[in-house]
């Protein structure tokens, strides 16, 4: 049964008036949520593109992750104390369209053996030529991967992607790359049907980027059968997939933009899962604790939320001011009153789950007297008017901004909270026009130098949103990005963390927990480093 959003909410009791009227008014009808072969999730994101190599919306990423396999994926293991749920561990991988792989040339070359017998929906076989076309396309097409591949695996020429025979594909890197397998595991490296994509290319669009916005060209456990913007995304199990058939034959992602509606649908069991990020605010998750028929899965994550201080703009070009801001952040009030226990205090810019995390170095704690002394030391004229930019629809940022505003005004700031749409926020941030803002970042590769490079390298123009410049940090990143000695690499990471903390580059806020609320009969959810759900293993318990 396919319903538009209005009908969906109406049939399932989504209108507040119906709920208030009581259950006698609502006559439940058979729906997708009661179909044992269908998983229905409430979603807050449309697909903007199905091009794997492009940067895209959450809806685009989750869809790609479920309909297009890459060569390898991150391995998952059971979560202790969470029976039926799984998460990734650093440095562990599973074969997907590559059944095996090995290293050559002291790790500088990766060799993948293509899984035999796998076919694209067109009937054409997946071969090493498919691998090469897909990686060539990532390196050369107008997308996200053309920035990632040269930096992380030191490949700048398509000739470094080599077909040895129909079943053997090699990546010949300049040197050993500690992040090489993680980079290959990104869903952006989904393997495409080269002939299908080429058939829709043109002189003006040689990589068929426009066609791929709306059309899939890979093979995965599910296939996209419906993409109705503003309404729903529907996936169905792929016939003759190389793995056993998934427990759910059909995945329906209903677009429900209003969070209150998502909560209501969960309570009525009209959906089985709230997907997306953030999906539900910590306050609403807290309200669902103990709700009959529901359960909450939460595990620590690598997402960082921080106060961005633009060092190109006064007074944040002053070290004492930035340190004062850190002492003024009321993090011990924010954790229970904004995150409701679904997050943890940030003690270093490198997440606590990331190798080399330095969790006992930061001196910052809420201390208004210390913050005031630092403002006096900075010799800045007060009150200092400043706009604090946040994104509309990010409730934790909206709530934290009020706490931060109150404390900063005690030490000499006059704070105006400015709410911007996500698109506007990002455009203004990249141009360097925010002075103070609450930012969010997650490193999809759980490696300290992926994280440090994007966020603190002075040459990163779109992600170093504090506009931090430190030549010593730049050199430590360059010298250790591809360092094979793990101990040396971790020591360099910790040295950078100390410098960044001493320089008070960020106002340290919190790390998110990864949280999903679902019906109590679900199990098999898998948490990988990029946070995007794969539905292949989800089942009714």
Helix content: 25-40%
- CATH level 4 superfamily of the largest domain: Dipeptide-binding Protein, Domain 3
Biggest sheet: strand arrangement: 13-17-12-16-14-15
% residues in beta strands: 15-25%
CATH class of the largest domain: Alpha Beta
Q: Quickly give the CATH architecture of the largest domain.
A: Roll
Number of beta strands: 20
- Could you say which structural class the secondary elements and strand pairing correspond to? alpha/beta
How many helices? The count is 18
Radius of gyration using CA atoms only: 24 Å
CATH T-level fold name of the largest domain: Dipeptide-binding Protein, domain 3
Overall domain count? 3
Q: Termini separation (Å)?
A: 24 Å
Low-confidence stretches: 1-30
Mean pLDDT across all amino acids: 93
* Broad shape: globular
Main beta sheet: strand number and arrangement? 6 strands, mixed
Keywords:
541 residues, alpha/beta, D-Maltodextrin-Binding Protein, domain 2, Dipeptide-binding Protein, domain 1, Dipeptide-binding Protein, domain 3, 3 domains, six-stranded mixed beta sheet, five-stranded mixed beta sheet, 20 strands, 31% helix, 25% strand
